[in-house]
Amino acid sequence: MQIDLITRQTLVTPEAPTTLAAVDPLDRDAASDEIVVTTTRSLIRLVLVAAETASRFEREAIGHDPVAWMLAPRDLFAGRSAVEACLSREECLRAVLLHGLSIGLDADPMTLDALMAEDDDVDADRFDEADVADGSGTDLDAADRANGAEQETLRLWTSFLIAERGTGTIQAFDAVVAGDRLEAETKLRARHGAAVGDAIEVSEGFDPSSPMAEALLSPAVADMLEQVAADPYSPLAKGLSVSFEQRFAA
Questions:
Q1: Domain assignment of residue 126, given as a range
Q2: Is 227 helix (H, G, I), strand (E, B) or coil?
């Protein structure tokens, strides 16, 4: 008996790659979904960029969907989307700087890198000024120099903002630990965008009896800020950045 084995070849046409914008996050997962292997730190970077994007679009009343911005390809990320690119540290920093300084909705990555390099140079110069000899003519060690530089410069800065936006009135209180007034003003005004930057009043220290502080801050937060103002080098003050807002519809 002879058996003829007839082989048949099935041609499978590969599906065109699905763009991120076409993926419905509310649908169930599919076998064809792309698998992305990442780390917890990378996911937190992505969350940070998403929060910064939404916050900026809200405060500047930008008429675009922040989710669409996250999914669209950008020159800032060499043609990739923020969702794809901002898992890495460099792209995350660029996106945060873009929104923090309100530099349009896209930019040349070299422009953002240059701004970050300038900021690093300022930090280096500030350290060099503290790199001096002690009274006996012996150089301080690195730890003492860094600590001395901090003790000479760091202070608590606070700001109040009352501004009209298309959606109504915003009242905001912010606090940050910074080396000088210029650094504090740059950080605090970038937080709310260029549109209302001139309306922000920046002061050194913290006055818990001011009307805005009493209206926006809880007693616990006010007590914390008083402690930071008294000792801006304490662990409580390290990296401090506080922001409270209330909005009234038009």
A1: 118-133+140-153
A2: helix
Dihedral sign for Cα 133, 134, 136, 141, please: negative
pLDDT digits (tens, 9 = 90+) for 145-180: 445 444 458 999 998 888 877 777 888 888 999 888
List Cα–Cα distances, 9 to 12, 14, 165, in angstroms: 9, 15, 64
Cβ-Cβ contacts under 8 Å for 237 (sequence gap 6 or more):
154, 156, 177, 228, 231
Spatial distance between the Cα atoms of 16 and 33, rounded to a whole number of angstroms: 12
Domain presence at residue 123: yes
The set of residues, in sequence order, having a beta carbon less than 8 Å from that of 156 and lying 6+ positions away, is: 175, 176, 177, 204, 205, 206, 225, 228, 229, 232, 237, 240
- Within 8 A by CB and 6+ apart from 6, the residues are none
User: How far is the C-alpha of 112 from the C-alpha of 115, rounded, in Å?
Assistant: 5
Both 124 and 164 in one domain: the answer is: no
- Residue 34, classed as helix, strand or coil, is coil
pLDDT, tens digit, for every residue of 29-83?
A: 888 888 888 899 999 999 999 998 998 888 788 888 999 999 999 999 999 999 9
pLDDT in tens, 85-144: 999 999 998 998 888 877 889 999 888 887 777 655 544 544 444 444 344 444 444 444
